[in-house]
Amino acid sequence: MEIAQSLQQVKSSYIREILAAACDKNVISLAGGLPDESTFPIELMKPMLNSLATMPEVFQYGSTAGYQPLLDHLRSVYELKDSHQIMITTGSQQGLDLIARAYINPGESVVMEAPSYLGAMQVFGLVQANLLTVSQTEFGPNLAELEQCFAQHKPKMFYAVPDFHNPTGVCWTLETRQKVAELCLQYQVTFIEDAPYRELRFEGEALPMVSTFCPDQSIVLRSFSKIASPGLRIGVVTGKQSLIEPLIKIKQGADLHSSVPMQALLLGLLQHDGFEAHIDSIRSLYKNRYETLYRELKCQLPSHCRIQSVDGGMFIWVTLPECDTFELAKQLLANGVAVVPSPVFYPEQDQSTAALRLNFTNANPEELTEAVKRLAQGLTAFI
């Protein structure tokens, strides 16, 4: 049986392929966006894990929107307007998929930054969206390009990761956030704010979300994979009720609802007295690892490589002289270090700049130091 045309056009994930190769015990992986397993708050979850045995109701079918006690808790934490709705998804990736399926017809335009999150490009590719891109600066998207794109193409939505962007780590400035919201309102473009790394800030003060400035024309995706556990597979989508209701209809047909026991387990974790300290410990751990990787890169990489500093998140973006980054990544893998080359983060790979995405959260300082040594040796030999 022939697969659908939309799927034929979607390329397999390079990152998944390289992660499989990086399982070799002799390879240090800087390729994936994996949280460190030592940060999983299993001890904090134990009280609720034990309580689940006395809660048979959570093992029954549940509401598509989510487990009501969890919804009530999150509505309070996020300070949602009465006119806004909240829905639990099976990871925030499902939320993105539901948005694409609910709102994008084949050929309709979606704007993204370039480079951008690979998973988003795959989701929009499956619904055969017309992907438009704007370049990124150190402050966020190029605003002149963005306005020209909005005015010329009249896209349906603008998808972005304003806090510690994947793959570059860029965090949008306050001025950029306000201007993007202003442009979305002016040109009637819905803003899709993906915020999986927002809690991972380890320097500076948190900035308002972009959706704060255009609350009725935005949909927000949040994730608990980075601060709790990816295996829980719990994400959250919020927005104006009229924007969320179509997503609930599609989710009902997709999986009825996300796991209710896992939602109850998450609620117990979020309400635990030790949860804030847990978040602080993650930030401290990742800050230390970031500082190790950044320091070693600055010390060991050739001077013609540009290392972009970050204030949080999980990634460092290293810009290189023009070269075949796929071949470079292959050579580096043979040298015992796994990285992700820049073209996989562009809808049109031939438009990419030469760069590598490096993850610092899932390797200890000794491994990071050795990884940079191997990376520097490989770069010197290749470039």
UniProtKB/TrEMBL annotation:
PANTHER family: AMINOTRANSFERASE, KYNURENINE_ALPHA-AMINOADIPATE AMINOTRANSFERASE, MITOCHONDRIAL. It comes from Vibrio sinensis. The keyword Transcription does not apply. This is PLP-dependent aminotransferase family protein. Keywords: Aminotransferase, Pyridoxal phosphate, Transferase. GO terms for molecular function: pyridoxal phosphate binding; transaminase activity. Gene3D superfamilies: Aspartate Aminotransferase, domain 1, Type I PLP-dependent aspartate aminotransferase-like (Major domain). Residues 27-375 form the Aminotransferase class I/classII large domain. Pfam families: Aminotran_1_2. GO terms for biological process: alpha-amino acid metabolic process. The keyword Protease does not apply. InterPro entries: Aminotransferase_I/II_large, Class-I_PLP-dep_aminotransf, PyrdxlP-dep_Trfase, PyrdxlP-dep_Trfase_major, PyrdxlP-dep_Trfase_small. SUPFAM superfamilies: PLP-dependent transferases. Its cofactor is pyridoxal 5'-phosphate.
